[in-house]
Amino acid sequence: MYNVLAFGLRVFLVAAGLTWLPARSGSPRLNALGEIGKASWHVFLVQGVWLGSAISILPAGRVQWVCVNVVICCGVGYAWYRLGEELRERRLLTDSK
What we know:
Distance between the termini: 55 Å
Low-confidence stretches: none
Order of helices and strands: HHHH
Structural class: mainly alpha
Mean pLDDT: 82
Largest sheet: none
Number of strands: 0
Radius of gyration: 18 Å
């Protein structure tokens, strides 16, 4: 489905999701996924650095290592995101004084 019609379907699905899905969920698991989603740019950047540097030392093709890589990249990326948010909030507080 690599044509113009596929693009329209994706736009419709994203617009429908943004319109009808709630911003917050009652489920802690879904809220955790939402928090990781907010940090997706940071996770992406960490993946680039981690996989670019660690690919030569970790064995490829094993499910265990894929899981380890996902956990490491998501954890470090989320921690970086939270640190940036905390620093931004502190700067806003000191600038408003």
